[in-house]
TrEMBL record:
Database matches in SUPFAM superfamilies: NAD(P)-binding Rossmann-fold domains
Entry-linked Gene3D superfamilies: NAD(P)-binding Rossmann-like Domain (3.40.50.720)
Protein's UniProt name: SDR family NAD(P)-dependent oxidoreductase
Keywords: Membrane, Oxidoreductase, Transmembrane, Transmembrane helix
Signal sequence range: none
Phylogenetic lineage: Bacteria, Pseudomonadati, Bacteroidota, Flavobacteriia, Flavobacteriales
Cell cycle is among the record's keywords: no
Family statement drawn from the similarity comment of this UniProt entry: Belongs to the short-chain dehydrogenases/reductases (SDR) family.
Listed transmembrane segments: 214-231
Length: 241
């Protein structure tokens, strides 16, 4: 398995879920911008599951030397890369914040995704799982910079799924709603609409095994976002969402 964004609690929970379910991996490649943190997780799965892994440092804000991971190959790619950024009014007009949100969630991520997608295509097998967001379903004033990047990522995954279908490669788009993770720590989240990383991992693994195309972590979010998408614009623009 290839894991992009392996410091993510959801990514780590998915790895553990897959191993608990008996999935066999010759090696798990853990791509990370925080090597020390990821090495702790690598030791954990080695002790708990006797699972061999390799930690590979990658920083999407810097130039990437793809030759350093030419050797990486697997039948599952799990992408949990994400950066929420500063969603305040000050953050909105901070270009460094904006650039980082766009770069990490989309523009710098897509070349990496394409690099591995080509490997999957040439082998004509495998599954690519991408964590997008319900924030990409419709732009809302509270997080539309982040939402726009996730909307672009959702569109990319949709197109990639369409392109790779005849190449026998499946692409799963996951749209978590509220998640109880480090990224959302301190935010006033409704507990009834918030999933834990373990809940998310169980949902994603089930969707992976069923070869679903799009999965909302909590089913209620598909209903919520359907309503939000269908609010007429002349009403929607007046709402505080």
């Amino acid at each position: 398995m290839i894991v992009l964004g392996s410091t993510s609690e959801v990514a780590q929970a998915f790895v553990e879920k897959a191993l608990q379910e008996g999935e066999k991996f010759e090696k798990i490649y853990l791509f990370t911008s925080s090597k020390e943190t990821t090495e702790r997780f690598a030791r954990h799965i080695d002790v708990k599951f006797l699972q061999q892994s390799e930690v590979i440092e990658i920083d999407l804000m810097k130039e990437i030397d793809y030759t350093t991971f030419d050797h990486v190959s697997s039948h599952i790619l799990f992408c949990a890369v994400g950066y929420l950024g500063d969603g305040t009014e000050e953050g909105l007009y901070d270009n460094r914040n904006t650039e980082k949100i766009i770069n990490i969630n989309y523009s710098k991520l897509i070349p990496v995704m394409n690099y591995f997608a080509q490997k999957f295509e040439s082998r004509r097998s495998g599954t690519i799982i991408g964590l997008s967001s319900v924030a990409g379903d419709r732009g809302r004033q509270s997080n539309f910079i982040y939402g726009s990047a996730k909307a672009a990522f959702t569109a990319y995954l949709s197109g990639l799924r369409n392109y790779l279908f005849e190449k026998k490669v499946h692409v799963l788009t996951v749209k978590p709603g509220f998640m109880a993770t480090k990224m959302t720590e301190g935010l006033p989240l409704n507990p009834k609409l918030t999933a834990t990383p373990k809940q998310a991992a169980a949902c994603i693994y089930k969707a992976f095994k069923k070869q679903k195309n799009v999965a909302y972590v909590l089913p209620v979010w598909s209903i919520i976002m359907m309503i939000i998408r269908n609010i007429p614009e002349f009403i929607f623009k007046k709402l505080k969402l």
